[in-house]
């Protein structure tokens, strides 16, 4: 790069203007973070409804729709936290049920996550705050699952925000941050049960941080200074960088007495540090006991705020669980049932509301936790613990590699930069801060810990690793940017070129993963973000066609779902229709249409509900042929592995079939949608 080209002077002038603006505008950092947040919102909402719903999306979205239709709600751990059901229920009432609407809350919360970087401003410098906001906005894992209606991004965002408010509380000692932390903790727990794992992670990271503070307060410098001897004539001391001094060197390795003396000295120093903290607190306050009591009072009020927000989300509505675990015809409001609004508006009923909610939460959490023995038709009845059906190590490794593959292939930039940022902090190359190792410890342990707490190895687990790792990663990214900026300011073109090359490589990696995994190939099995219960992309157009035909149809049935095998040939794990016609109306839960083997066919029931399709079932080949000849329904759904499907008769009746995958793998996950425009009953005939 030559100066004669004019590129370098132009870049230097741009740098000077940018630096001048940053120095003169007190709100420059806030403006940059807000701009990045708006960019993140745009990236998350564009084509948000394009991808066909995943199994989990369809299941939870159906129950949010069901809540809006019936007014019945009860917390169930198998659906995860109630936050998304409440918010989606309100959205469906405002803009109608759709894939866009069901994902919008997650997209908005994920887009707002970069704002939390501003809460860490006492521990991160200006460039690190902006870098953290950029990583939260552009990281492919966070971006993909911010466009996915699961609660992982919700709980990650809410719990990190609560943590950031606690950090702000530590920085300012202002009680309002304690209340904010209590509210966001409640939102985190209302989003997903693994909010509890976040608290455990914080406690573990705190223990490691305390060990670092008390044992190696200066990081690697202490370890090297403790172990490295001085050689004769001071050769090693001369070579050792100044940042590792002061070091007590001897002519050989430290003796046992020297080691003992150093340990005793360190313990005495740590005890003195704790005593100094207590004395400092007493010195800063005229009445230390009164001040401590005030803190206790604020803690009680913050816990109360946590409880009230939790009560709002967890409390039952309508007929509660009775409106869910019953046939649709029986799902009316139970007389005398106390829901949230009844209990909150009537002080006499509030204790009953509180008791009902607490009992329900305790029951469901006891099923989720390792000691739980409860169960339902939706789950194995035990907590998501991998040591049930497979050998422990094999199961753990399967889950570990799935989540790690998503982290490495999707968030490789954050993962690599996090390690660099941690080393920069520990080596003292950047200003050492407790926040950096804390977040690194939390993220690093999550890589190995989260696969233990799940029944399936899923790529969305990587989101819980990325969020804490983004903090040390931001330190490294900002260091590279400062390297480039300082090199440019000092005419160090080789340094500027090297730093620019690193930044360019990082941009390429993020763009490659973002485009190839977030906006294209969003349903392909080769995409590490895609979990196997994802239908293929082409189904989306077919669903729109089904909706069009159902809307135009005035007949009694819009869709007929068929599966014809029975007896020993019936596949209860994959069949969409049960073998016994007299049991089609017997639904353990209010899953409509009740004739379906509902969970095998997800997410189709979500689309049937959202598009108000009238759906019937059939398991007789002869009856299906008759229905086709009479053109009773414009849409017929069959399964490709079912040998009883009368394909020739359907074609002869004018039906055209297209096949799709309901899951990314498996020969029995392929089904065919048969459509016939002539079968639409437009109501003109008698």
Can you describe this structure?
With 686 residues, the protein is mostly helical. The protein has 2 domains: 3-215 and 386-519, no CATH class; 539-679, 3-Layer(aba) Sandwich (D-Maltodextrin-Binding Protein, domain 2). It is 58% helix and 4% strand. The chain has 26 helices and 5 strands. It has helices at 7-24, 28-45, 55-70, 83-95, 99-112, 126-138, 140-146, 152-172, 175-191, 195-215, 220-227, 235-239, 256-284, 288-314, 340-345, 350-368, 392-410, 412-426, 435-449, 462-489, 493-519, 539-552, 598-601, 604-610, 621-629, 647-652; strands at residues 559-562, 615-618, 635-639, 656-661, 670-675. A 5-stranded mixed sheet has the order 2-1-3-5-4. β4 and β5 (670-675) form a beta hairpin. α2 packs parallel to α6 (126-138) and α8 packs antiparallel against α9. The longest helix is centred in the middle third of the chain and has 29 residues, at 256-284. It is globular and about 90 Å long.
